[in-house]
Amino acid sequence: MRYTLAVLLLAAAFSCKKERTTTSPEEREALLRVTEIENAYNNDAPETLKVSYDPLGRISSSISGDKKYLFNYQTPSALQISRYKISDNTLVQTIDCMLNTAGAITKETYRNASDNAIFYTYQYGYNADGYMILAEAAGYNNSYKWEFIYTDGLLTQSKYYEAGVYKSITHFKYDASVTNKTNLPHWWTWASSMLYGKPEKYALVEIREFDTTNKLIRHWTSSYQYDAAGKVLTESKQSQLSNDVQRYRYKLQ
């Protein structure tokens, strides 16, 4: 993660006799952050998500359509996110988040702004390396759970449960020649490389999901293209079970 890299670079600077004033291409790439994501499904009009950051590199706002989320880091272990309706600037929801020592969310509590009533919660677990290994959701009289399995720093499988009943397993495949320049993990609600654990280092190129009868129920493949400066990434996802196509365009800085 970014703050871990900063610590390592600081330690290296103190251990050298000559101060280093430049960073390598690999280090600059690791520090890239998403500032905009354009998402288009089939021939629908694209939707655009814009993200900004505070001086510490933490996500501070997320804007899409008529929704604006503002991030208030109250303490090292507490974050409150406020959702506003942009057209009339009304507060719609608040999301109270608990953070672990690495800055990743361990619990999200969603409340209606009108009556402060809780209507949804998420809980997350992470392994010693900082990768998300568990996600649990509860609300609207139902519950959901995802278990994530990692091999050599890559998410290889996930198991999905609904109301405690096992429903499906998903397999993930990567291209080791394509770096995950978005620095986003597989699971994220807000486009942050810190709030949902450590991101995978390579680009995801295939997802296959099977139900309890081993029937293939979801199969997507992805391809990637960068601009010459490596600051704009286009991802094209093609369903192998239908003609559906989803395209993402990421702007990085």
Please tell me the total number of domains.
Answer: 2
The CATH class name of the largest domain reads: Mainly Beta
Rounded to the nearest angstrom, the radius of gyration is 19 Å
Low-confidence stretches: 1-29
Q: What is the CATH architecture annotation of the largest domain? A: Beta Barrel
Computed structural class? mainly beta
Organism: Niabella pedocola
Protein name: DUF4595 domain-containing protein
Description:
With 253 residues, the protein is mostly beta strands. The protein folds into 2 domains: 30 residues, no CATH class; 221 residues, Porin. It has 2 helices and 16 strands. The protein has a 16-stranded antiparallel barrel. β7 and β8 form a beta hairpin. The longest helix is centred in the first third of the chain and has 14 residues. It is globular. This is DUF4595 domain-containing protein. It comes from Niabella pedocola.
Key terms:
253 residues, mainly beta, Porin, 2 domains, 16-stranded antiparallel β-barrel, 8% helix, disordered N terminus
Quick structural gist:
The protein is mainly β. Helix content is 8%, strand content 57%.
